[in-house]
Design goal:
Elements (H helix, E strand, L loop, with lengths): L2 E2 L3 H20 L5 E7 L3 H17 L2 E7 L5 H13 L5 E4 L27 H8 L11 H12 L8 E5 L6 H10 L3 E5 L6 H6 L3 E4 L19 E4 L3 E2 L5 E2 L4 H4 L5 E2 L6 H21 L2
Parallel strand pairs: 1-11, 2-3, 2-4, 5-6, 5-7, 7-8, 8-11
Antiparallel strand pairs: 9-10
Helix pairs in contact: 1-9, 2-9, 5-6, 5-9
The structure holds NADPH dihydro-nicotinamide-adenine-dinucleotide phosphate (NDP).
The site of NADPH dihydro-nicotinamide-adenine-dinucleotide phosphate has 25 residues, from α9.
């Protein structure tokens, strides 16, 4: 029987702590506040931003979705970000991706100032992660941070393990590779040009998939005799229109020692990490 790495109990425990932290901050007249900049009305982005707002409010933080017109000019968009950067009552800001065409060339990671960069995309935060010099004033990208938390809370050993990550995006694969390397894993980062992917995934201890292809990882990528741990980051829709991961859960579940479900695995941890980062930013205000 494999261990199913549900995030619900981990989330519940962390949420309790975050509520208490938020209350304590408010007693010191710090009201944690997040701004989520949303341009246009991409259906998935509307759901993601609504979920972020709902969770922030659940822990007692303020969250405003700054909804901007899909055709907003670059200068008006930048003006909005500058206003948020300068607003002393705002602790964190994230820009929901993807951005429309006229803004897609912008280096989003550098727009939000590093003290408010609760998405962990700012070059200084990325450098701190890369050099393993993370301090309380640095933020780690939310999905990698959430994956690490889920693994640690589920007693999945990381040190000395061979981790294969499939997917090299700036929001998941690359920062996750750094984070797990910092935690003493030996990391192989794969992508669409990787040759013999199956040979690589079959030989690892922990396989993390962040590809964005429904049920791509099936039993042919797994070694049943290796007690592998599978972390599925993917959020896709299957042929029936249902939410599913990158991993073919039914075909893989009984061949591995542990596996995250979709939904109910990595997804909720991303939002929890965002709230953790927000409260960290609020606490940093106290020591400014
Ligand atoms: P991207 O599209 O930015 O990156 C996908 C990566 O997968 C790329 O590096 C690409 O390689 C690689 N890839 C694509 N096809 C293959 C293949 N056949 N073999 C090997 N590698 C392949 O995706 P994201 O990182 O933004 O997201 C990945 C998935 O994770 C999506 O389903 C997304 O919805 C989900 N996601 C979930 C989150 C959560 O909270 N649960 C948060 C963020 C994302 P190459 O670089 O060569 O093109």
């Amino acid at each position: 029987m494999s261990q199913i790495l549900h995030s619900a109990s981990v989330k519940k425990l962390i949420t309790k702590g975050l509520k208490a932290e938020c209350k304590a901050l408010k007693e010191k007249n710090i009201f944690p506040q997040l701004k989520v900049v949303l341009v246009g009305s991409d259906p998935a982005s509307l759901i993601y931003t609504a979920n972020k707002k709902k969770y922030c409010e659940k822990i007692g933080a303020l969250c405003e979705i700054v909804a901007l017109d899909e055709h907003i000019s670059e200068s008006d968009f930048l003006k909005t970000i500058t206003q948020i950067n300068e607003d002393q009552l705002v602790d964190g800001c994230i820009v929901q991706l993807p951005l429309p065409k006229q803004l897609s060339h912008l280096d989003v990671g550098s727009l939000v100032k590093k003290e408010k960069d609760v998405d962990g995309f700012h070059p200084e935060n990325l450098y701190a992660l890369m050099s393993n010099h993370l301090g309380p004033k640095n933020f780690i990208s939310c999905t990698p941070k959430g994956i690490l938390t889920l693994m640690q809370e589920s007693q999945i050993e990381i040190s000395g393990k061979h981790v294969v990550i499939v997917g090299r995006s700036m929001i998941v694969g690359k920062p996750l590779a750094m984070l797990l390397t910092n935690n003493n894993a030996t990391v192989t980062l794969c992508h669409s040009h990787t040759k013999n992917l199956r040979e690589i995934t079959k030989n690892c201890d922990i396989l993390i998939s962040a590809i964005g292809k429904a049920q791509f990882i099936d039993e042919t990528y797994i070694s049943p005799d290796k007690n592998q741990v599978i972390i599925d980051v993917g959020m896709n829709t299957d042929t029936q229109g249902q939410l599913c991961g990158d991993v073919h859960y039914a075909k893989v579940e009984n061949l591995v020692s542990a596996i995250t479900p979709v939904p109910g695995g990595v997804g909720p941890m991303t939002i929890v990490s965002l709230a953790q980062n927000l409260l960290q930013a609020s606490k940093n205000r106290l020591s400014l």
